[in-house]
From TrEMBL:
<dbReference type="InterPro" id="IPR011289">
    <property type="entry name" value="Fruc_bis_ald_class-2"/>
</dbReference>
<dbReference type="GO" id="GO:0006096">
    <property type="term" value="P:glycolytic process"/>
</dbReference>
<feature type="binding site">
    <location>
        <position position="105"/>
    </location>
    <ligand>
        <name>Zn(2+) 2</name>
    </ligand>
</feature>
<feature type="binding site">
    <location>
        <begin position="229"/>
        <end position="232"/>
    </location>
    <ligand>
        <name>dihydroxyacetone phosphate</name>
    </ligand>
</feature>
<keyword id="KW-0862">Zinc</keyword>
<feature type="binding site">
    <location>
        <begin position="208"/>
        <end position="210"/>
    </location>
    <ligand>
        <name>dihydroxyacetone phosphate</name>
    </ligand>
</feature>
<keyword id="KW-0456">Lyase</keyword>
<feature type="binding site">
    <location>
        <position position="207"/>
    </location>
    <ligand>
        <name>Zn(2+) 1</name>
    </ligand>
</feature>
<dbReference type="InterPro" id="IPR000771">
    <property type="entry name" value="FBA_II"/>
</dbReference>
<dbReference type="Pfam" id="PF01116">
    <property type="entry name" value="F_bP_aldolase"/>
</dbReference>
<feature type="binding site">
    <location>
        <position position="85"/>
    </location>
    <ligand>
        <name>Zn(2+) 1</name>
    </ligand>
</feature>
<keyword id="KW-0479">Metal-binding</keyword>
<dbReference type="InterPro" id="IPR013785">
    <property type="entry name" value="Aldolase_TIM"/>
</dbReference>
<feature type="active site" description="Proton donor">
    <location>
        <position position="84"/>
    </location>
</feature>
<dbReference type="GO" id="GO:0030388">
    <property type="term" value="P:fructose 1,6-bisphosphate metabolic process"/>
</dbReference>
<dbReference type="GO" id="GO:0008270">
    <property type="term" value="F:zinc ion binding"/>
</dbReference>
<protein>
    <submittedName>
        <fullName>Class II fructose-1,6-bisphosphate aldolase</fullName>
        <ecNumber>4.1.2.13</ecNumber>
    </submittedName>
</protein>
Length: 251
């Protein structure tokens, strides 16, 4: 049975640890993530981009597959199925499809429009027992074909979005999607501290977890981050394993 992500992230906040979000693109990835999290007794959020959902023939297919796998594999840890960087239309589709959590990425809208759309989706998600994440300040890099400039989020705008009743917040603090360049300056912890203080202790989300040093992740957790998103590292490992398998000449 799928659960929303609110309870697991509140426990993480109070316990000062982070919950992983691993993005999934197919059955094989999903099985690997569920197996690892069951073995380590870790709650997990399975993230699905709109591109991955389309590849897997639609959000209804994804929800049915994940629900069946959780049941068939006897998974006992909490599992949330979460739309990652969703559009307004994508969020509505995932509500209907049976996801347990959504993220509305309205960071590219003017703050007034972001607030308006987020407010509507908060009501819709909560009416269906779902959790909802929102974003302020574009996360850098490329996500599902969308290029983010890597803004540092404005604490006042973060407070405005948080006041709408969202369950957790993604805020740009110098993190990026994809592989971090050699000249990356690191996370802006002063900005994170200001955002944390402005948002009433709401669980915060760190996108672009691949390549961030462990000590930076630990410090981010100490400043309110409760959810760490990981995708690129899985992409790289999957590609490398596939390459080695082919080069070994296996059937």
């Amino acid at each position: 049975m799928l659960v929303n992500a609110t309870e697991m992230l509140l426990k993480a906040r109070d316990g000062h640890y982070g919950v992983p979000q691993f993005n999934i693109n197919n059955l094989e990835w999903t099985k690997a993530v569920l197996t690892a999290c069951e073995q380590t007794k870790s709650p997990v959020i399975l993230g699905v981009s709109e591109g991955a959902g389309k590849y897997m023939t639609g959000f209804k297919t994804v929800a049915a597959m994940v629900s069946a796998m959780v049941d068939s594999m006897g998974i006992t840890v909490p599992v949330a199925l979460h739309l990652d960087h969703g559009t307004y239309e994508g969020c509505k589709a995932c509500v209907e499809a049976g996801f347990s959590s959504i993220m509305f990425d309205g960071s590219h809208y003017p703050i007034e429009e972001n607030v308006e759309k987020t407010k509507e989706l908060v009501a819709l998600a909560h009416a269906h027992g779902m959790s909802i994440e929102a974003e302020v300040g574009s996360i850098g890099g490329v996500e599902d074909g969308v290029v983010g400039s890597g803004e540092i989020a404005d604490p006042a705008e973060c407070a405005s979005i948080t006041a709408l009743g969202i369950d957790f917040l993604a805020a740009g603090i110098g993190n990026i999607h994809g592989v971090y360049p050699a000249n990356w300056k690191g996370l802006d912890f002063e900005a994170l501290d200001r955002i944390h203080k402005a948002t009433n202790n709401i669980p915060l989300v760190l996108h672009g977890g691949t390549g961030i040093p462990d000590e930076m992740i630990a410090k981010a957790i100490s400043l309110g981050v409760c959810k760490i998103n990981i995708n690129t590292e899985c992409q790289l490992v999957f590609a490398e394993a596939t390459r080695k398998y082919i080069e070994a000449g296996k059937d």
